[in-house]
Every structure is written in structure tokens, then in C-alpha cells.
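Q: C-alpha cells for this one, please.
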Amino acid sequence: MSWQSFIQNQIAQRKQASIWRQRQCIDSANGRSLFLAGKEFLNFSSNDYLGLSHHPQVIAAWQRGADEYGVGSGGSGHITGFTKAHDKLEQALADWLGYPKALLFISGFAANHAVITALMTANDRILADKLSHASIMEASIHSGAQLRRFQHNNPLSLNKLIQKPVVGKTLVITEGVFSMDGDSAPLQQLQEIARNQQAWLMVDDAHGVGVTGEQGRGSCFASGIKPEILVVTFGKAFGLSGAAVLCDEPTADFFVQSARHLIYSTSMPPAQAVALLAAVEQIKQADELRADLNQNIEYFRKNAEFSGMRLANSKTAIQPLIVGENQASQQLANFLRRKNIWVQAIRPPTVPPGSARLRITLSAAHQRQDIDQLLEALHDFIAQS
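A: Here is the predicted structure, written as C-alpha cells:
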């Protein structure tokens, strides 16, 4: 088969299966609204849960950082890309989240990939929740370790797998809040099982940190546990981008020597680190915003009853509405778009076949009438179907 035939066949297969993805070049967006071609849409697809992406103090901090450091880091953190701004942010994250050390990465994908591939060898074993993020799955495969997936949020399934012998180390991996289902992991039980077998627990809390726990410290703090590896990302409640890995000092020293994304990637701009430090301070003080978000979640769920569609069992900002068929989910998303409501259809392979959905995300910035408008539009779609 020629290269041209291969590409054309792949494109045709995706279009035929209604899983064709397209990027949309928008004008701008925030936690509540999205602007495209001069029109304003209610935005129910943003991960900006607290609205910090447009917080004036966070923006001002980035501007101050750019004035002091410029707009780029100029290199890897191992060369010239580690500044006082990065160091202050790492120390603040470690203090806030209760770990000896924090290490900054350019993305959550990079952090998960760096940690897993650095820690694991061919003699080792990874036991990951079946619905773990693509970055976790890809890194686990690339690591060369034995990969086994336990049933989603099922401690009994994990316990059965972890009893089987292995030559090397065992790493248990889960998410605090799952990005496509919005449900939370039974972290206390998972940690107990891991520790009983001298395994380490790694938790990716991208969608939990900032919005759960005291001062927004996240899912692990709220569950009363401290995993050996905690990954937090800055593209959700922080309103920015990037990630950090929290761990003890020897493990951090090991990552500095071995994590390829730290060694070979240009570090985040120091101005961004200054803005992230301001975001941390805002998150600590955001009890009112977290209360607003929780009220929005409760109100939506109380009024969301839709014939022929199922709302997932989630108490978080992620509220998946399971439609089932790929084409039907896209039709619903397009219908809402015509009503000036922006919600993305999520289809396989991101989610399992037959579970295409609208991934509705709520923000503290949403107002009651915004949610009413969404609910009314969903009922209108059902009435015409």
C-alpha cells in the first residue's frame, strides 16, 4: 500500500465511523463563554473550573513575569531554564500539597510519561485503572513493564491482580477524578491494597486539585492519603497549563537524573511560573468559588432527566451525558451549537465504543440561567427526536 492510500483509507474509516475530529479556531473563551465569528456561546466544554484563566491578579502576575524574565525560558531546566520563578513555584506547591519536593513539567502528558518511563523496567509491573488517561496508558506501554488493567474503580479487581507474583516493582496508577466519566477513585482502598504488597501508588489528580479538599488541595488530601507519586496539572482549575510531580526528595533527585522530559525539553517560561504562583494563592482562597461550583453541579444534576440518554454518576464538574451512538452524539452537539451552546461530543477511541457522549463541564463562572438554558435546549432536542 502506498503512503497516499494509507492516509486516505485512514481518513475514510474515521469519517465512516463518525469519529472524525476537527479543530475549531475560536476567537477566545473563558469558563462561561466562548466567542467565534462574532457570536457568543455558552461554554460547557471548558476545564477552567474556577475561572482563573481570566483572573486579573493571575494575568498581572504573568505580565510582571514577562517584564522581569522575558517570554521564554531559553532552554532545558538542566541548562539555563530553571529560574527563581520556577524554584519558588516548586516550593509553594510542595508546601501547599504536603510533599518534600515538586518538579515542574510542560504538560500533564509529559509528566505522566516522564514518571512512568523513568521508574519502570521490563521486570516491573504496572496495575492501572482501566479508564486511566491516554498519557498513562501510552507511557506504560513504552516503559516495557508488564501492564495489567484493573476494573474501573474496583479495589477487588486490583487486589486480585496484585496478588500475582512479579520479579520487580509494582506501581498502581489511578486518577483522582476521571476525565471522561467525572467519577472519583476509591483512593483509601487503593492505597491500602498497594501498601499491603509494598507497591507504590501514583495518582493523576488533574481534575481534582483546586476544586476538592481543604484549600483545593485535591482528591488525595480529601481522602486522607498521600500517594508516593502525585501528579497535578495546571490546565484545569489553575486556568493555565503545565504540570507538577510531587514526591519525596530521593525520588525527585532520581527524576532530575532520569526523567527525559525534564532533561530534554525546554522548561515552561518563567513568566508562566510567576502566574502559576499567583494562581496557587487564588486557589487557596477560593472557598466561595468552590461553593459556587458545587451549587452549579447540584442544580444541574437535580434538573437533568433526559429520556433516551443517561447522565453518568458524577458529583464533580465533569457531567457526562451518555448518548451511545457516535452520530447521535455529534447531532446533539450540533443542535446545541445552533442554540449558541458549546458542548463537545466525545467519541471512541477516547471513550469505549457505544458510549459516545456530551462531556458537559461546569464552572463556578456559570450562572443559574446558563444552566437553565442548557437544560431547556437538551429537552428541546429530545422533544424533536
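A few notes: The chain has a mean pLDDT of 95. The first helix runs from residue 3 to 16.
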